[in-house]
Design brief:
Number of strands of chain B: 26
Shape of chain B: globular
Helix content of chain B: 25-40%
Largest sheet of chain B: 8 strands, mixed
Shape of chain A: globular
Radius of gyration of chain A: 23 Å
Number of helices of chain B: 19
Strand order of the largest sheet of chain B: 3-5-1-12-9-10-11-20
Mean pLDDT of chain A: 91
Helix content of chain A: 25-40%
Structural class of chain B: alpha+beta
Oligomer: heterodimer
Number of strands of chain A: 20
CATH class of the largest domain in chain B: Alpha Beta
Distance between the termini of chain B: 53 Å
Number of helices of chain A: 16
CATH architecture of the largest domain in chain B: 2-Layer Sandwich
Mean pLDDT of chain B: 95
CATH topology of the largest domain in chain B: Aldehyde Oxidoreductase, domain 4
CATH superfamily of the largest domain in chain B: Aldehyde oxidase/xanthine dehydrogenase, molybdopterin binding domain
């Protein structure tokens, strides 16, 4: 392996001026001086001569720009539930290599961070194990997507607690040439890092502290807030600022829609937004946790969320995107909203004036509009317990994974002696906002959970919302999918076999 | 065995070697055109001003607003063109148009110190520098047919007497088939970088499959001879036909900018620009009548194919010719009358895409078989097998079908290795016990003609140097887009010279090394360039053998001795495919050197609630002759199959067909809206085998072309989806399945099956059904009795 500690990576500027904002790239300090808030990490890296990362789509769909960053491993956020960490298991390392789409990362937000690109993993004369498997197995044809695959594979190769290669690690990388078989085989042929592996060793030290930082450049400023009050103060002072956690929306706005914001406020490191508490009557999810972190920490304990996560974009996106960000954009087709509506979630909004709690069902006010006021941030999402016993998330798409839904239906049914005592149905893609299917809920509650009830309710559900024709689906298909969703849920859960998961321990 | 195909012992061809650039790919060291930008100083960045109309006259174009934007250096318009304002070769593709012909067409280009400056300059022009007079537009192929909006020459393939044969047929079916195009979505968008050298010569680095044509078009735009322009292609991040004709205009913009400013100029499209500005696979409409005899053999096919050509001809004519030459696929049809025409629509100019019309032609006949089989009372695979070509038969355009036995061998191999009988029984059991999910297994063949239909293109050149130290440098006219051509050429050179692979290096494709090349297209790259490389190497080898004179010197010693003896150690090679003949006017002859064969069996499972599906297993046996490079060939087969399945099932190219202000706009212009197959679309079990004992006499080292033919193996997936949807209804019902067969399309097919009235299949033993004359085409009948229903 090429030593990542070596200075002098191709084209990298290695002057590490003491107070100049900089990131560590492939072991060398690279200045971020003069990097504006609209410059992506991808463009910045390529300007340094590090051209392995490619632009294929500039919206986080293709993964050709994937790079690795060191991120902290949170307690219980390493793929096993916190309350199941056993004494006989060694503690997870404090940090891990995480693959992200460089096109969706503001370059300035890398200040103080450690990055490894495909070039930093190995060289033609000294291939990294991931690179070797891909090269020898015919895993590259045109080679354009390959560095991105290498980075996604390397992150999985180094994943703490890995018990075999999880192919979902490659769900955010597109290849137009190979048909994927050799890439899959290369991934599955990978072993584990050796004891002397430099990058594995790096994970034994904490991730770089994401401190309060400011980077000025042409077109504006990036501020990273270290604590919540700092973020709120910045937000109050800069009303036009864009709040950036994972950057997955920022990147699309800047790269595809030409948005130019003078001020970015980075909240990715705010500790108050990065907590996860499983209480007796509530699961409280910090709005700034990435979806991958939530997925890893919660496991199967909220089944609807567990069903949602693998269908929520791709691993590359989930490594950056946050639950708060997905709700704050108030998209009618955001996948989190229907699920959280079915879970009867409330959200906590924070500002310098204090906090308020809003039922999610009252949060969305119009197309991409919400009750979020200037100066407010989503702090956390509260999911009440106990959970309903029958639950299903049905996302209707063209592609099975990593696609935007034409319709999304999340349903949670509480049964008592075969009767529906409570029904919650969240819908995406059928109205300008995510909505509850109130009429259908009423058609279910107080009735037996049987085929007759379900068919009658399905007929009601077909009439909910006002689906449109577009490039994703016809209105007729969307309507049909509303109708079949309940039938499908009933076919999967004809009786209340799943006991409500009330015995969750804090 | 011919000298060309004969393979020596210890040949380097046939070895299992990785892609020659694999180590560069996986480390990011492989450079693509736009990776070079940082290596030049003072590069200007180009950004287009794109028209917001499908069809409009440009009534005013004033670049001034852009000149007020800081960092904008120059605006390129038609007035700047010193030569010919055309980005094509047929005179119908103005580089800077006076009349907008499709939504998103570039009307001018802005050069800036940064891409951001150029983008802002383009925004300024779009906002206040350009006015349009909108004109009526034609968007869909049906609109074009209704309006009589066509372009180019109509074509007609004819054999026998279709009317009599249809009259005498046991059963006649009629119907229409319409299917969409496909976006190439090479991961690397179009890119060009032009510099002017010290002598005023223009050097253009371009992501192009056709450097010679790029050179010619840059030269005619600049008004200079071809020798004043050099085009180099390092490698492409995918091409698939999308960089055969489309790069020229972008290269010309870069070259024009460089000559006018004296600075390097970079053009690199964003994904949205690439999708909205460049051509795609042609969608087609087909109306057909088909007749079968009492045993289920085709007796006649009459069809009219209308391709959606977009705003200019581009490669639409040769694409149409290939479509007409592949309507038969693997089936002998004695009486044929198939007409083809090209619609002019206000869309991107549709162009080459892997298969080049072959997939479109074949889709028609496979759709016909899939729809007719239930009503003939035959299993689709039985209907297919029954109609295979046999030895001595000829295609409708008059070419003898050699080696049809190979198709049978592949078919029988699959039946055994994939345990098709056993699995069909298992599927029947599964379907009987599952109300909400159905499985199906379909087997489809491919017969694909290899050679450019247009005979003169079947030539290639190569330049091979042996240096004094015994190292070898080869250069040929083909380009590398991931298909492994360079890998194969290194193997060919090593074989022909008799040296180890590591002695051979391959230099990037350049027009000043090998001139007058054909596009790397038509799957012919290895056949043509392999012939040329082999020729060059054999010239050198013959001279060396004379020096050696039976002494058996080691390579390095032999080369050193030859140099001292003043023997020429380099050679230019040339190859032209022998034995071709084609009359384009009558659409008759033997345009193809040979046919490539393949068979695929695909099993799918369909969800009855949503129409969503999974491809559970795919088995392929494909004929690549004696493989030049097995890893490369298997990779081409797998990749082509998945790309074909993408076209047929997932990739849903949409245009705004409404009458609103966005009419004609591509609505799926991003990776988030145009979905490519991802890892989850790969067949869960995927077995690919190369057909053994498949030596091809008359092709380089006995090999066959592989780039395009396997794409059409993906028809097996589409036909399996049709059969699985049918399994939700009573037997014997013909199922119309839209293309692409998205989950929604499959859902509607399921609904069609569910609502169908059980039909009584006509038992074939019963003989011809009564007839009362020829059926009328274009009947529209209710869903329960589709228009392709048996006419009696």
């Amino acid at each position: 392996m090429a030593a990542v500690d070596e200075a002098g990576s191709p084209g990298a500027t290695t002057h590490a001026a003491a107070r100049s904002p900089a990131a560590t790239v492939n072991g060398a300090a690279v200045s971020l001086r003069g990097v504006g808030p609209q410059t992506s990490a991808l463009d910045w890296l390529r300007a340094q001569g590090l051209t392995a990362a490619k632009e294929g789509c500039a919206e986080g769909e293709c993964g050709a720009c994937a790079i690795l960053v060191v991120r902290p491993v949170l307690d219980g956020v390493d793929g096993r539930p916190a309350d199941q960490t056993r004494a006989d298991r060694t503690a997870p390392p404090p940090s891990q290599w995480t693959a992200v789409n460089a096109c969706l990362v503001p370059a300035a937000s890398l200040v103080g961070q450690e990055v490894v690109t495909c070039e930093g993993l190995g060289s033609p004369d000294a291939l990294h194990p991931v690179q070797r498997e891909l090269a020898l197995g015919g895993g590259s044809q045109c080679g354009y997507c390959t560095p991105g695959f290498v980075c996604s594979m390397a992150a999985e190769y180094y994943r703490p607690g890995s018990d075999g290669f999880d192919l979902e690690a490659l769900s955010g990388n597109l290849c137009r040439c190979t048909g994927y078989r050799p890439i899959r085989d290369a991934a599955l042929a990978l072993g584990s890092p050796g004891a002397d592996d430099v990058l594995a060793g790096r994970c034994q030290r904490p991730a770089p502290r994401r401190s309060s930082q400011r980077v000025d450049g042409p077109g504006g400023t990036y501020h990273r807030a270290a604590v919540l009050v700092e973020a709120l103060e910045l937000l109050a002072a800069k009303p036009g600022a864009m709040v950036v956690a994972g950057g997955t929306d920022w990147g699309v706005e800047v790269n595809l829609r030409g948005a130019r914001r003078e001020v970015l406020i980075g909240i990715d490191a705010v500790p108050e937004l990065r907590t996860l508490d499983v209480g007796v009557d509530t699961v409280k999810v910090g709005a700034g946790l990435t979806l991958s972190e939530i997925e890893g920490a919660l496991g199967d304990r909220v089944p609807l969320l567990a069903q949602l996560m693998p269908q929520f974009a791709s691993r590359l996106i989930r490594n950056s995107a946050t639950l708060g960000g997905n709700l704050a954009t108030a998209s009618p087709i955001g996948d989190a909203a229907p699920v959280l509506l079915a879970l009867d979630a409330t959200i906590v909004l924070a500002s310098l004036h204090g906090e308020r709690v809003v039922p999610l069902a009252e949060f969305f006010t119009g197309y991409r509009e919400s009750v979020l006021r200037a100066g407010e941030l989503i702090r956390s999402v509260l999911i009440p317990l106990p959970l309903a016993g029958v639950a299903g998330f049905h996302k209707i798409t063209k592609r099975r994974f990593d696609d935007i839904s034409s319709v999304a239906i999340a349903t949670a049914i509480t049964l008592s002696d075969g009767m529906v005592t409570r029904a919650r149905i969240g819908l995406g893609g059928v109205a300008p906002t995510p909505v509850r299917a109130l009429a259908t809920e009423a058609a279910l509650e107080g009735r037996p959970w049987d085929r007759d009830t379900v068919e009658a309710a399905a007929a009601v559900l077909r009439g909910e919302g006002s689906p449109l024709d577009d490039h994703r689906a016809t209105a007729a298909y969307r309507t049909a999918m509303l109708g079949t969703s309940l039938l499908r849920l009933h076919a999967d859960h004809p009786t209340d076999r799943q006991r409500p998961t009330v015995e969750m321990s804090p | 065995m011919s000298a060309l195909s004969q393979r020596p012992d210890d040949a380097a061809v046939g070895l299992t070697v990785p892609h020659e650039s694999a180590a560069l790919h996986v480390t990011g060291a492989a450079l693509y055109t736009d990776d070079l930008v940082g290596r030049f100083r003072d590069v200007l960045h180009a950004h287009p001003v794109q028209a917001p109309h499908a069809h409009a006259r440009i009534s005013r174009l004033d670049p001034t607003p852009a000149l007020h934007v800081p960092g904008v250096v120059r605006i390129l318009t038609a007035a700047d063109v010193p030569g010919l304002n055309d980005s094509g070769v047929l005179g119908d593709q103005p580089l800077f148009p006076a009349e907008v012909m499709h939504h998103g067409q570039a009307v001018c280009w802005v050069l800036g110190e940064t891409l951001e400056a150029a983008r802002r300059g383009a925004e300024a022009i779009a906002a206040s520098g350009v006015d349009y007079d909108p004109l009526p537009s034609v968007i869909t192929v049906r609109e074009a047919m209704a309006a009589g909006s066509f372009q180019g020459a109509d074509r007609h393939v004819q054999r026998g007497d279709v009317e009599t044969a249809l009259h005498d047929a046991a059963q006649v079916f009629t119907g229409e088939t319409e299917f969409a195009g496909q976006e190439h979505f090479y991961l690397e968008t179009h890119a060009s970088l032009a510099v002017v050298d010290e002598s005023g010569q223009v050097f253009v680095q371009s992501s192009t499959q056709h450097p010679s044509e790029t050179q010619g078009i840059v030269a005619h735009v600049l008004g200079v001879p071809d020798h004043a322009v050099t085009v180099q292609c390092l490698r492409m991040g995918g091409g698939f036909g999308g960089k055969e004709m489309q790069p020229h205009g972008f290269a010309a913009v870069a070259a024009l900018g460089a000559t006018l400013t004296g600075r390097p100029v970079r053009v690199r499209l964003t994904r949205a620009q690439d999708v909205t500005m460049t051509g795609k696979r042609h969608g087609f409409h087909a109306a057909w009548r088909v007749g079968f005899d009492a045993e289920g053999h085709f007796t006649a096919l009459e069809a009219t194919l209308t391709s959606d050509g977009g705003w200019s001809l581009d490669l639409s004519e040769p694409v149409l010719v290939r479509a007409l030459c592949h309507v038969d696929n693997a089936y002998f049809i004695p009486n044929v009358s198939v007409r083809g025409r090209i619609a002019l629509t206000h869309k991107t100019s549709q162009t080459a895409f892997r298969g080049f019309g072959g997939p479109q032609g074949m889709l028609v006949i496979e759709d016909i078989i899939g729809r007719c089989a239930p009503q003939l009372g035959l299993e689709p695979h039985e209907l297919r097998r029954r109609n295979f070509y046999t030895a001595g038969q000829t295609t409708p355009y008059g070419q003898e079908v050699r080696h049809p036995d190979r198709l049978v061998r592949a078919w029988d191999t699959i039946a055994e290795s994939a345990e098709l009988d056993t699995r069909r029984a298992e599927i029947a059991t599964f379907n009987a016990s599952h109300a909400t999910a159905k499985r199906a297994l379909a087997v489809t063949p491919v017969k694909f003609g290899i050679s450019f239909n247009f005979t003169p293109l079947n030539q290639a050149g190569a330049l091979v140097h042996v240096y004094k130290d015994g190292s070898v440098l080869i250069n040929h006219g083909g380009t590398e887009m991931g298909q492994g051509l360079h890998t194969k050429m290194i193997q060919v050179a090593a074989t022909a010279l008799g040296v180890p692979l590591h002695r051979v290096r391959l230099a990037p494709t350049r027009t000043d090394k090998v001139p007058n090349t054909s596009a790397t297209a038509a799957s012919s790259g290895a056949d043509l360039n392999g012939g040329a490389v082999k020729d060059a190497c054999e010239q050198i080898r013959a001279r060396l053998d004379a020096v050696d004179d039976g002494a058996g010197l080691a390579w390095e010693d032999l080369v050193a001795k030859a140099y001292l003896a003043r023997v020429q150690l380099w050679a230019a090679g040339f190859y032209r495919t022998e034995g071709l003949g084609w009359d384009a006017a009558t659409m008759h002859g033997h345009p193809f050197k040979y046919f490539a064969y393949g068979v695929a069996a695909a099993e799918v499972e369909v969800d009855g609630f949503t129409g969503a599906y999974r491809t559970r297993r795919v088995d392929i046996v494909h004929d690549v002759g004696d493989s030049l490079s097995p890893v490369v060939d298997v990779g081409q087969i797998e990749g082509a199959f998945v790309q074909g399945a993408g076209w047929l099932t997932l990739e849903d190219l949409r245009w705004d067909e409404g009458d609103g202000p966005d009419r004609g706009r591509v609505t799926t212009q991003a990776a988030s809206t145009y979905k490519l197959p991802s890892l989850s679309e790969m067949p869960e079990v995927f077995n690919v085998t190369l057909l053994p004992d498949a030596h091809e006499d008359g092709a380089v080292y006995g090999s066959k072309a592989v780039g395009e033919p396997p794409l059409m193996l993906a028809f097996s997936v589409r036909e399996a989806l049709r059969q699985a949807a049918a399994a939700f209804g009573p037997p014997g019902v013909s199922i119309d399945l839209a293309s692409p067969a998205t989950p929604e399309a499959v859902y509607w097919a399921i609904e069609l099956a569910r609502s169908a009235v059980p039909a009584t299949p006509v038992p074939y033993a019963a003989g011809p059904a009564p007839r009362d004359g020829s059926p009328a085409a274009g009947d529209v009948e209710p869903v329960s009795a589709p228009p392709w229903q048996v006419q009696t």
